[in-house]
């Protein structure tokens, strides 16, 4: 019988794995037949999130030149480089265009079709437009992948889970809010992929509480304004009259930082410097394990500071008071945060040129406004200042930090469980919205259709309404009949609505304290409670403790997802080859 490989999930991750299988098969799997079964109810390539059938108003949050599905020589992998076009090259777009998601879906379908065409003769791809419900089978034997609506399972020698963002059951707090809404004829929209949410019940002119100020909020903002017939005339929003009034807040109380709007020039910081493979191996080898804030964060902070100051000293030396070589030597020898702060104070005269990660993470801490209107003006100025800075190469040390963040994330995926805070911090600094979206946000604020609530936003349900407030504006509160949780569901095993993951957990797959699926950081094999890798089951994606930053990779940045895809593909091909050899013997 021909070997059988099942890949659950035909979106960008599954497509990336297929590309790596095609690239590695000539070396590892030549001359042997193989069936590859993709299981996904959504179209291959784009999958659910990047499918072509969604609103053309929704954009990617990366420049078209920063989106690629193909490897290059910067990726630390054993397989061959197979170069291919970035999104902007494929679509003949200007590199700094923010493409819509429909176009990205077409690009992903093309990548999928190309990878399929690059497979050796005898390797066949099948697409099953169904959901996978569970996996059964012995550790050392063939696996059975049970599909929705099917009476017989797909038989698989190996299974790769390449799932993307997943729906989740409500947690205790969300369930209480939902129950209150049902009892009092209110509307509660839980965390969801915004393009799939039914927003029709949000009435024109009514106040709507929105908790979450990241990319899911930006999608919500677009669908409830332009999506309802409004339009922009320069920096002015012309309403259709069908828009609700959005009252938005979050833990930080500010939107994610805008995408940087200029190109890199000159010398890049030599990364990794303080957090590289050696440091990761030392952390992994510690007998008692590691704690992120105590053991890992100081190395992250040192690395990001190095990237920032390398750029400042090499690109803007007139704003420093020390030679770079002297600063670098003393920075490396600084024994702790106090010594580092003293060095920076002596070498960087303007405090605005110093990197303060705590202040970046909590921009409104200790800030109070005397009135709600004063806060609206204050936060508009904050966003204006952010837009100005992120588009001004005089502040290119910010781009150095961005490259540092990419380097750090690429190393941390090798550690496994780093906790949820780091991923959120990375997204806030490095994965924010396009600058034009924040200009639209400002226009909506000036039009009175978007109101800022503040940091540490609280939501209560009482007296038949939802009520929101924030210590940023003491004494202010707003009432509404509608509450939208503008964020994706948390990817945890215990609350996954997808029965596939729940069944895996029940079958002994290990989870981190934060509820992520534990996998071998080398090749993605699923681990059990004793830390043993499953010989026939693999997993890649945001629900694992080896999740990578974002869905797509920026060219020439080392591509942690590419490295993982390559390692998984090579392991899978070698195992399938050995299985085929034993069957033929």
TrEMBL record:
Phylogenetic lineage: Bacteria, Bacillati, Actinomycetota, Actinomycetes, Kitasatosporales
Protein name according to UniProt: FAD/NAD(P)-binding protein
Superkingdom of origin: Bacteria
Region described as Disordered: 537-556
Domain (FAD-dependent urate hydroxylase HpyO/Asp monooxygenase CreE-like FAD/NAD(P)-binding): residue spans on this chain: 6-165
Coiled-coil regions listed: none
């Amino acid at each position: 019988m021909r070997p059988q490989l099942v890949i659950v999930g035909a979106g960008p991750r599954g497509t990336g794995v297929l590309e790596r299988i095609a690239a590695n098969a000539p070396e590892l799997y030549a001359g042997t037949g193989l069936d590859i079964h993709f299981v996904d109810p959504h179209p291959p390539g784009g999958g659910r999130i990047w499918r072509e059938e969604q609103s053309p108003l929704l954009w990617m949050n990366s420049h078209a030149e920063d989106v690629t599905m193909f490897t290059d020589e910067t990726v630390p992998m054993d397989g061959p480089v197979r170069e291919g076009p970035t999104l902007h090259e494929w679509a003949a777009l200007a590199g700094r265009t923010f493409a819509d998601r429909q176009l990205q879906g077409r690009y992903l379908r093309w990548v999928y079709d190309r990878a399929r065409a690059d497979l050796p003769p005898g390797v066949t791809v099948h697409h099953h437009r169904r959901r996978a419900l569970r996996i059964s089978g012995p550790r050392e034997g063939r696996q059975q992948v049970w599909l929705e609506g099917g009476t017989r399972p797909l038989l698989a020698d190996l299974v790769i889970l390449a799932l993307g963002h997943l729906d989740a059951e409500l947690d205790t707090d969300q369930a209480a809010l939902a129950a209150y809404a049902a009892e009092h004829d209110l509307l509660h929209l839980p965390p969801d992929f915004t393009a799939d949410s039914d927003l029709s019940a949000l009435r024109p002119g009514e106040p709507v509480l929105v908790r979450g100020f990241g990319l899911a909020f930006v999608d919500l903002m677009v669908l409830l304004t332009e999506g309802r017939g409004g339009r922009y005339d320069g920096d002015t929003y012309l309403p259709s009259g069908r828009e609700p009034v959005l009252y938005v807040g979050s833990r930080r109380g500010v939107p994610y930082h805008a995408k940087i709007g200029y190109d890199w020039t000159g010398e890049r910081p030599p990364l990794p410097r303080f957090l590289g493979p050696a440091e990761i191996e030392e952390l992994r080898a510690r007998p008692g394990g590691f704690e992120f804030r105590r053991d890992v964060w100081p190395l992250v902070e040192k690395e990001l500071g190095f990237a920032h100051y390398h750029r400042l000293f090499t690109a803007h030396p007139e704003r420093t008071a020390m030679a770079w070589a002297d600063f670098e030597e003393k920075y490396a020898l600084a024994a702790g945060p106090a010594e580092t702060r003293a060095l920076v104070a002596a070498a960087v005269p303007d405090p605005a040129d110093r990197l303060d990660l705590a202040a970046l993470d909590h921009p409104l801490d200790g800030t109070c406004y005397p009135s709600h209107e004063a806060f609206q003006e204050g936060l508009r100025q904050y966003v204006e200042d952010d837009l100005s800075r992120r588009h001004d190469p005089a502040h290119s040390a910010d781009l150095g930090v961005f490259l540092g963040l990419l380097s750090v994330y690429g190393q941390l995926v090798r550690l496994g469980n780093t906790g949820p805070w780091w991923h959120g911090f990375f997204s806030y600094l490095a994965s924010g919205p396009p600058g034009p979206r924040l200009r639209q946000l400002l226009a909506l604020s000036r039009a009175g259709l978007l109101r800022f609530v503040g940091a540490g936003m609280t939501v209560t349900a009482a007296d038949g309404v939802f009520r929101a407030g924030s210590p940023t504006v003491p004494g202010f509160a707003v009432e509404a009949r509608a509450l939208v949780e503008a964020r994706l569901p948390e990817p945890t095993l215990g609350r996954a609505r997808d029965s596939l993951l729940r069944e895996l957990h029940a079958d002994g797959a290990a989870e981190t304290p934060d509820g992520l699926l534990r996998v071998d950081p080398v090749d993605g094999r699923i681990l059990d409670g004793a830390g043993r890798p499953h010989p026939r089951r693999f997993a890649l994606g945001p629900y694992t403790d080896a999740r990578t930053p974002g869905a797509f990779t920026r060219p020439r940045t080392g591509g942690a997802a590419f490295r993982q895809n390559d390692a998984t593909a090579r392991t899978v091909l070698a195992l399938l080859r050995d299985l085929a050899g034993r069957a033929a013997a």
